[in-house]
Amino acid sequence: MSVTRVAVIGSGPSGAYTAQLLTEESESPVEVDVFDRLATPFGLVRYGVAPDHPRVKSITTSFAEVFDETPGVRFLGNVEIGRDLSIAELREHYDAVVFAHGAPLDRRLGIDGEDLDGVDAVRQFVSWYQGHPDQAADAFVLQGGTRAVVIGVGNVALDAARMLVREVEDLRKTDIPEHIVEAFAASTIDEVVVIGRRGPAFAKFTNKEFIELLEVDSTDVVIDAADLELDEVQQAHLASDPAAKRLVATFQKAADRGVLGRRKTIRFVFDRTPVEFLGDGTVTGIRLRATSDPSVVEDLPVDLALRSVGYLGKPLEGLPFDERAGVVPSRDSRVIDGDDVVEGVYVAGWIKRGPNGVVGTNRKCALETVESVLADVAARGGASTASSAETVDALLRGRDVRVVDWSDWRAIEAAEIAAGEAVGRERIKLHIRAEQLRAAELAGATAGV
Ligand SMILES: Cc1cc2nc3c(=O)[nH]c(=O)nc-3n(C[C@H](O)[C@H](O)[C@H](O)COP(=O)(O)OP(=O)(O)OC[C@H]3O[C@@H](n4cnc5c(N)ncnc54)[C@H](O)[C@@H]3O)c2cc1C
């Protein structure tokens, strides 16, 4: 029986689950090459999930097992599809190609002043504090100003707000780079205002995430009790949504706790729509309008504004793209171009269903994708027309692509642990791609001695 060879684009949760499930679910032999444009695996688990959420991040242990223990599953990091390999080439060399490359862009508010200095996407801020190699070390300076606003009321907004008030000792327990710890240590921001367009009943973050905020010792969490006098629409929503009801009950506890005179404050402002960022070159304020009463307009001075209104997929040349939804259009996880299925091309994760759900949601999503891949393989009688792994490797070598394989990644990990130990921390991320590649080279050279 011939071996089916599958390319998976992206090593985030959806790519890792796809690789794992392909090998688990297939009755015939299957080999999977997982490509990532970064030299490091795990996508947003490494560069999105908050550094002070180690339990969520520990899912990487089970993803690593897929690469460590499954014969035929390879990691090919530092290979960007669309640059180093085209989609046409992938289709030529593999029996099936699964795009699981996430949603690396962000939605804009579309209001005046959005391009002022000091107005950024929360995605950029998150990438910066996570030490993403695409982010300059000095992309954010937190000195000088005192008030930041975060526009949006999802879990990512709360992550950013919490990071802005976290104690430096807490940050040193994470793996974020030293220059980021120092930037937070030097921060003069002492108030973060989180702005929701609708009332508190419609906040999207989870109760668990909000409780975590209440547990940050340095910080008062301020909610205006008047905001918790809910109108009929909000009350009807609570009646139908137990999670929202629990969250509003916790808001009430926070409002009852009142202001404790702590050093920093996170303040929630509901029923406000941003209409303009104010400033000349650099942001100095934000104009807000009451969503329920457009005659109420107020200006709030701000030094840093982060919009957190959703991630967005990015088009790849040669792959259909739905601009409005920001996803690759699909039917039963098979990519479609208009009404036609693009044979042998599939999607999984955020690029398939949009930026929603937790890490585990991508497992169910990947399973649906794998079922379609394997059904199509079976319909072809299992015959493979794929090239060998060696052919793909030679193609990349011929283009001078320095592929980071799984043992290289293990070397990068070891270098990160050593960098942490040197300064009394558990681990510190290498945040410069050249440093990551150097760590891989050094380990390779030592192994070769
Ligand atoms: C800030 C933030 C915090 C979060 N916190 C949590 C949390 O606490 N708990 C939780 O359960 N979930 C959390 N999530 C959600 C979770 O991270 C996502 O559900 C999940 O990462 C989506 O997986 P994915 O594989 O579709 O995309 P991604 O994780 O984005 O992975 C996509 C991968 O594709 C690669 N790629 C992109 N383009 C190319 C290309 N052209 N060629 C090759 N490779 C490419 C990228 O480098 C990346 O590694 C968070 C998300 C964010 C943004």
What does this structure look like?
This is ferredoxin--NADP(+) reductase. It is an enzyme of class 1 (oxidoreductase). InterPro entries: FAD/NAD-bd_sf, FAD/NAD-binding_dom, Ferredox_Rdtase, Ferredox_Rdtase_adrenod. Belongs to the ferredoxin--NADP reductase type 1 family. The protein has 449 residues and is an alpha/beta fold. The protein folds into 2 domains: 4-104 and 312-404, Rossmann fold (3-Layer(aba) Sandwich); 108-309, 3-Layer(bba) Sandwich (FAD/NAD(P)-binding domain). The protein contains 17 helices and 18 strands. Strand 12 and strand 13 (293-301) form a beta hairpin. The longest helix is centred in the C-terminal third of the chain and has 19 residues, at 361-379. The two termini are 40 Å apart. The model has no long low-confidence stretch (mean pLDDT 96). The structure holds flavin-adenine dinucleotide.
